[in-house]
Specification:
Length: 466
């Protein structure tokens, strides 16, 4: 495994900013509001001679309760698995009692440690370091994460403390396997599902809506297959979003859909299908991603409630009947196996490989079964088809008068191809292209014999007039 470096400290000292600098990404959500980060966030730093894993953690506070206590538990997990801990402090705030309490905790963990004095830009570095000398940490480094200053000395100091990687670093690239984004409204059970799949308390799951803020990517191996789970923040209607942090969380959640291979939409069976759920499905369709609908909290419902839930799904999700609906209980684990099978089928369908010959034969069969409506007395002709890409499967059809083909006929072709190739859980895109007339713009040159016959016909026509 690659060595692990954990970023630990009070809220709003710049841990997430430093994480983004080290990983050369914008994966960690950064805001001036304290306590934005709650879950463990992993990334790979490749700036040093040898790569290592960086773990961003939530800020630690005194007398933590509720969500803050769960954030502290996540930070504790990161400290336990780290090879080196970076205690990050704020040079502008100076040395605070909370910094001393965190240091005492780290010393009890007996981990190699570096003191990162952040936000030294515009300050006297020697004076800032002198104030934190009271902590008794031998290795203190001045850093300005917001401006990328002091990163090189930090990497040099880390290189001396980190153990050597035991495996090829290319074998642990992020986003390995099938990328599965788990999206839905707040409190639908997304984080609970992630923890159930992993078999551990990897992300914070709470009854409080809006617990998850960052989009967390987590590797998973199940039944010999590799996945990257993306736990996202709950998405509410735009009119209800007032907090700037929530706005950024929603943006990152929607970006996770674009980056995923398969999207799992979590629904609360007790609340049914809301307008926001259909809007989320619409975004998934626009992105062209495979879709599985997980109806959560199915356990504990009586027969009548289940019938009402199924009727609501059938009525409101009629436009996405191709998406598999799986009824699960993320809390108790029922239906999880069927859910992952649906994810695998959706991924396989989204990446199905077609050949031009088989698509053309399928097009001919569809055309013979039902021809498109007439346009100004003429029927559009569909000549041949070929693949145009995957995820989603794209089929390009060439013919004449294709610009006038009705939307209903396009849906007919989508359903025909879906049924013929047993494509489940993925949208299908069909593009029509008018075939060019090979004689367009060319003048018909007559042969000598045709010119003589043309002249003879003209003379005879003139004689007939007289």
């Amino acid at each position: 495994m690659l060595p692990v470096v954990a970023l630990v400290g009070r809220p709003n000292v710049g841990k997430s900013t430093l994480f983004n600098v080290l990983t050369r990404t914008r994966d960690a959500l950064v805001h001036d509001l304290p306590g934005v980060t709650r879950d463990r966030h992993y990334g790979v730093c490749r700036l040093a001679a040898a790569p290592f894993v960086v773990v961003d953690t939530g800020g630690l506070v005194d007398h933590a309760e509720g969500i803050e206590s769960q954030t502290a538990r996540q930070a504790g997990f990161a400290i336990d698995e780290a090879d080196v801990v970076l205690l990050t402090v704020d040079a502008r705030d100076g040395l605070l009692p909370t910094d001393r309490a965190i240091l005492d905790r780290l010393r009890r963990a007996s981990k190699p440690m570096l003191l990162i004095v952040n936000k030294v830009d515009g300050l006297d570095e020697h004076g800032a370091l002198a104030e934190f000398a009271a902590l008794g940490v031998a290795s203190a480094l001045p850093v300005s994460a917001a401006h990328g200053r002091g990163v090189t000395p930090l990497l040099v100091a880390l290189e001396a403390l980190l153990p050597k990687a035991e495996i090829d670093p290319l074998a642990v690239l992020p986003d390995e396997g099938i990328r599965v984004a788990i999206v839905g409204r707040p409190n639908a059970g997304k984080s609970t599902l992630v923890n159930r799949l992993l078999g551990e308390e990897r992300v914070i799951a709470s009854d409080v809506p809006g617990t998850t803020r960052d989009s967390i990517r987590i590797a998973l191996e199940r039944d010999g297959k590799r996945y990257t789970l993306i736990d996202t923040a709950g998405i509410r209607r735009r009119a209800r979003i007032e907090d700037a942090v929530e706005k950024f969380s929603v943006i990152k959640a929607l970006q996770s859909v674009d980056a995923a291979h398969v999207t799992v939409l979590m629904l609360d069976a007790r609340e049914g299908v809301a307008d926001q759920d259909t809007a989320l499905i619409g975004h998934v369709l626009e992105s062209g991603r495979a879709l599985v609908i997980a109806v959560n909290k199915w356990d504990g419902m009586d027969k009548y409630q289940r019938e009402q839930c199924v009727a609501s799904l059938s009525r409101k999700l009629e436009f996405a009947t191709w998406a598999r609906q799986v009824f699960i209980s993320a809390l108790h684990g029922s239906g999880i196996g069927e859910l992952m099978k649906a994810v695998n089928r959706a991924y396989a369908s989204a990446n199905h490989k077609f050949t031009s010959s088989e698509l053309t034969r399928a097009l001919e069969a569809a055309y013979q079964g039902y021809q498109p409506p007439l346009v100004r007395g003429h029927s559009p002709k569909l000549k041949y088809a070929h693949p145009g890409g995957s995820n989603p499967p794209t089929i390009i059809i060439h013919g004449s008068r294709t610009k006038h083909i009705a939307e209903g006929y396009r849906r007919y072709l989508e359903n025909f191809f879906r049924k013929r190739y047993r494509l489940e859980g993925t949208p299908i895109r069909i593009e029509f292209r008018d075939s060019e007339n090979p004689f367009a713009g060319k003048r018909n040159e007559l042969t000598e014999g045709q010119q003589r016959r043309r002249s003879r016909m003209i003379r005879n026509a003139k004689r007939g007039k007289h």
